[in-house]
Design brief:
Oligomer: single chain
Low-confidence stretches: 9-27, 34-53
Shape: globular
Order of helices and strands: HHHHHHHHEEHHHHH
Number of strands: 2
Mean pLDDT: 80
Helix content: 55-70%
Strand content: under 5%
Distance between the termini: 59 Å
Radius of gyration: 19 Å
Number of helices: 13
Structural class: mainly alpha
Amino acid sequence: MLRLLVARKYFMISVLCFSFILSGMLINADFCLAASDSAAAQFDDDFAEYDEPIAVINDPLEGINRSFFTFNNKLHLWLLEPTARAYRNVTPSMFRTGVLNFFNNLLEPTRIINSLLQGRWVEARETALRFLLNSTAGVGGLMDPSTYDGRELRERRFSSTLAFYGVGNGPYLVIPFYGPSDLRGVGGLLGDTLTSPIWYALNGDPVAVVVVKASKSVNQTSFRLGEYEKMLSGALDPYVAVRNAFAQHQLQLAE
């Protein structure tokens, strides 16, 4: 009996660690899709390395950041993408799309709150209508009728709210299992977590939250296979490419 309990304990720890890796590798990788086109265009230019930087990036910890980038890069390529590819091969596209819509709909309350905090009243109203329509006619968010109705999704997070009120980026950071961020982004992550329905639906259970986010990450990555490699395909320095893509994504969020 004791051996069974010990084995179960180690199994749960292994599942938790694996889920944490999978969830973390995409929590802050949304910038890849948003910046992939502009990054690809930049790297298609043979003289792109001589272009002006897209933003001033404060990177005093570059040595440490590069080490963490190498670690995260290998995890993404060797663990997350193969897992997502296997998942895609055995899961119908309709099911994966429904899961993607469901999790995206759960982020709407956070977007509404941040739109209000930034004084974007019309945007907050439109986002609230999106959430209402998708949660009802969209069967709990599994479908996305709001997009067909012409209601545009506007990505608003607490990091963009902090930026709206003049909080600086702080130093650029590459966090193990998480990816590119900055000091302001780390603070914004706390607000995003506390306004997420997932956190309250799971009663703040960190294990359950990590497992759910791991499922979300694998499902989301199954639609983006190859995006990450494409973004870095022409880069002379992959670390700089990802850092610039992150800076570009932050500028887009602030618009």
